[in-house]
Amino acid sequence: MIRKEKDYFILDTDHTTYCFRVLPTGQLEHLYYGRKLHIEDEADMQPLVEKHVFAPGNVNLYNEEQKAYSLEDMRLEMSSYGKGDIREPFVEVVNANGSNTIDFVYKEAEITKGKEAFAELPGSYGSEEEVEQLCIRLADEGNELALELYYYVYPSCDIISRSAKFYNNGKKAVQLKRLMSLQLDFDGHDYAFTTFHGAWAREMKRSDMPVIAGKLVNASYTGTTSSRANSFVMLSRPKTTEDAGECFGFHLIYSGNHYEAAEVNSFGKMRLVTGINPQAFSYEVVPEESFQAPEAVMAYAEKGFNQMSQRLHHFIREHIIRGTWQKKERPILLNSWEASYFDISEKKLLKLAKEAKEVGIELFVMDDGWFGERMDDSSSLGDWEANAKKLPGGLKGLSDKIRGLGLQFGIWVEPEMVNVKSKLYVAHPDWTIEIPGQPHSEGRNQRILDLGRREVQDYIIESMSKVFSSADISYVKWDMNRTFSDYYSTALPPERQGEVAHRYVLGLYRCMKELTERFPEILFEGCAAGGNRFDLGILCYFPQIWGSDDTDALCRAEIEENYSYGYPLSAVSAHVSACPNHQTLRNTPLETRFQVACFGSFGYECNLCDMKKEENEAMKEQIALYKKWRKVLQQGTFYRGRSFYDGAQSGMGGSVLADEAGNQMEWTCVSEDGTKAVGMLMQKLVVPNMQQQTYYPKGLLPDVRYHFYNRKLKYNIKEFGDLVNTVSPVHIKQDSLTHQVLSKLVKMDGETEDFHAYGDTLMYGGVHVSPAFGGTGYNDKVRHYPDFASRLYFMDGEVKK
Ligand code: GLA
Question: Where is the Glycosyl hydrolase family 36 N-terminal domain (predicted)?
Fold first, then answer.
C-alpha cells in the first residue's frame, strides 16, 4: 500500500516498509527501507528523520536559507552533481548551456493501481489488485528539465521496484550522460556487497566484499549483461546466513551494459545505485522528448538469503515471466550440441532422436549447424535456410519425422549475428556494428547486426518468422555468441554514437516482443555463449535461459546455486552431459550429473547412441523419476542449505583431509503446499574416515509426518577396483575380461533410507543418513560416496484427514 502523509511517503508491502519525505529545500530525503514498521501518521516517522543543526565543515550548503545541511551529508532518493552532493549521481546531464549542474526539486505526486511494461523496455506487470504505483514529479526549472521517479509496490510479493523518466522541456537538445534506475542511501556502511563475477563456462562466482570506504563497482561493457558480472547484486549485514540476518537483493530489468556501485562517503553513509552503465553512454534528448530508464527490482529480507531469494523467485514467476510457458511444466529435452557439434545430418539426428524417445525424452532440439554452409563457426550466420545436404527435406522434413517419433521438435538460432562469409553480409555490409574504414576486432568469426536500425529489426522479425513457421517448431534456443567491440552505427550521426549500445538493446526487445507475440506457443530459451546475457529483461520474454556452457556437474552445482540467489531455478536450464566432461575433462557420476541438472529446467546434451547400455538404462530411470517429481522441482520453493561456498567463507576450504566446511552442498525444493519435497546432498571430495553425514531439509511442515526415502541404486563393481577381491572367492585381476564380464552380471546394492518422521524432526534434528564408505568395509548399509557423489532424498507428507 502507498500512502502520502503531508510531505511523507510510506510504501508498505506485507512485511516491508520503504519511506521518504520531501525536504524543505524540495529534494527527497530517504528515511528507511527494511522490515515493516507501524506508521500511522507523520509523527510516527520523526525518529527516522536525520537532525541537522549546523552543517559539517568544508561542505557546500545547498542555499542561504538552509544553513543546517549540505546535500553531501543527506540520504537522498535521487541525486545529481553541482549542488553539494559529490557521490555517485542518479542523473548526469550536459545542459544546453554546457554546464552539468542540475537541481531537481519536488513538484507533485500521483498514486495509481496496476502496471504494464514500458513502451520500449520490458518490465514487471501486475493487475490493479497486485501492484500500486507512485509517480513523483520533480523539476529543474532553471534548466527546463523534468524527472519522474516511479515506485511500484507489490505487497504480497514483498517487492518494490523503481524506475525513472527524464524529460527535456526546453528549446535545445541536452546530452543525458547517465540515468540510474535506483538509488538507495543507507545510514551506515556495515554491509557486504555481493557480486556474481565470472567468465565463459565460469559464470556466477560469488564474492562478498565489505564496503569500507570509497566505491565498489560491478559493471559490464560487453554490450550484454555479461558472464563477467551479472547485474544481480546483494547487500547484507555481517554474519547474515541463509536463514538469519538482514539482506537486500537488487535486479536491473535490462540486457545491456549495466552498472551497480556501492559507495561510502566521508560521513559513513552508503549509497547503492543501479542502472545503465554510463561508460561511453550519452543520449541526446531533444526538446519535448524523454528518456526512460529500465526498471530495477529490490527485495529486502530479515530472515537471511533464503527468504530474500524466495521473495524474488515468487515475484519473477508471477510478475516477470509471462505467456503460455509461465506456469506450464517444461518438457525434458535432448540437445544435439555436445552430441555432434556442427557435424549434423538428418540421418544422424534421427538416430539420436530415436534413442531419445527410447529413454523418455519429450523434446528433441537441433542445435547449431543446420543452415547455409555452416560446417564450423566461420560462416553462414544470417542465411537462415536449411542446408540441403544436411537436411534434404528441410526443416519441415526433419520436424515431421521427429514428430512422427512422438517427440516435439526445437531448433537453435542466432538472429542478432552475421558472418562476413554469408549472403546477408554481402547484401548489407552496412548493417553491422563496426567502424567503416577501420579494422574490426572479431569475436567467434562473427559480427553483430545493428539492432538499433528499424530495417535490421524488421529483417530479424521476418526472417525468424519464416523459419519458425516453416515447420512444426515448439522450442527455440535464441543464442548470442559474441561481445561488442568497435561500437558504431552508420545510421547515427557522430554526436549520437553514445546511443548505439542502448538502441541495440531496445531493438532486441522489439524483436523478442514481436516474435514471442507471433509465436506464443513456442518455448523460447535465451542463451549467450552460456550465461552471457542472463537477466530479468530476457526473462520478460523467454521463460528460461541456458545458464552456462559448462555442464560439469561440480561446476554446475555452484553455478546453479549462485543463480538461485537472484533467479528461480526453473529459469536456469541445465543438462546432463557426457564424461569426461567437454569443458573440464572431469569425470563425475552420472547420478550427480542428473541430480544437479534436475533442479533446473532439465534436459540431456550427449550422444545417447554412443553411451553404454547401462548409462541409457540409468537415464531412462532418471527421466521416469523426474517426471514424477517435475512439478515440485520446477514450481516448488527452493532452499539452500550448506554450500561449497561455506569453505571459502570460513577460509578452511583448502584441506581435503579433515574439512567438512565447504565440502557439502545441500538443497531442498518443497511443493507449494509443503507436503512434498526433494532434497539433494552433494559432496565435493571424499574426506577419509568420515562416515557420518546429516542431511537437513528445510521448508517442511513441522507438524506433518513425512515418508523420507531415497532411490534404490546399484553400483558397478568396477567402481570398487581391485577391492572386489575382498569379497570374491577367486582372484580377479582389475580391468581383466573376468572383471569386465562380472561387472555386467553382478551389481552392488546401494543403501536404503526409509523413515517416517515429523517435519520438525527431519529439519531440526537432521536426517542421519547411512554411513559413507570409509575404507573399512562395504555392504548395502553403506553409502557409496566417492568424489562428487550426491544423493536425492524424497519426502512425502502424510496428508491429515
Ligand atoms: C553457444 C551456446 C552453445 C551452443 C553453441 C552453438 O556456445 O552457448 O550451447 O549452442 O553456441 O554454436
Answer: 26-284
Cell of 615: 548409462
Residues in Cβ contact with 677 at an 8 Å cutoff, skipping those fewer than 6 apart: 632, 636, 668, 669, 670, 671, 697, 699, 700, 706, 794, 795
User: If we measure between CA atoms, which residue out of 383, 321, 306 comes closest to residue 639?
Assistant: 306
**Strands of 392-483, DSSP E:** 408-413, 417-418, 447-448, 475-478
- SS3 of 472-536: the string is CCCEEEECCCCCCCCCCCCCCCHHHHHHHHHHHHHHHHHHHHHHHHHCCCCEEEECECCECCCCH
- Using CB distances shorter than 6 Å, the residues near ligand 1 are 337, 367-368, 412, 479, 481, 527, 529-530, 546, 549
User: Per the structure block, which three cell numbers stand in for 262?
Assistant: 556501492
Q: If we measure between CA atoms, which residue out of 229, 192, 237, 196 comes closest to residue 211?
A: 192
Q: What is the pLDDT of residues 637-650, one digit of tens each?
A: 999 999 999 877 65
Region 492-520 average pLDDT: 98
Q: What do you get for the CA distance between the two ends of the chain, in Å?
A: 38
User: Quick one: DSSP state of residue 38?
Assistant: -
- 479 an active-site residue? yes
**Residue 316 belongs to what H/E stretch?**
helix 304-319
Beta strands in 255-295 (DSSP E): 258-264, 270-276, 283-285, 290-292
Contact in structure between 631 and 336 (CB atoms under 8 Å): no
Dump the DSSP string for 216-241. Answer: EEEE--SSSS-SSB-S-EEEE-TT--
Model pTM above 0.85: yes
Tell me: cis bond preceding 580? Omega within 30 of 0 counts: yes
Region 674-698: mean pLDDT is 95
Please identify which of the residues 549, 552, 646, 659 carries the catalytic annotation: 549
Rounded Cα distance, 483 and 433, in Å: 11
Q: What is the residue with the minimal CA distance to atom 12 of ligand 1?
A: 368
Protein residue whose Cα sits closest to atom 2 of ligand 1: 529
Residue 512 CA to ligand 1 center (angstroms) comes to 19
Question: What CA–CA distance (Å, rounded) separates 338 from 755?
Answer: 40
How many Å apart are CA 352 and CA 610, to the nearest integer?
9
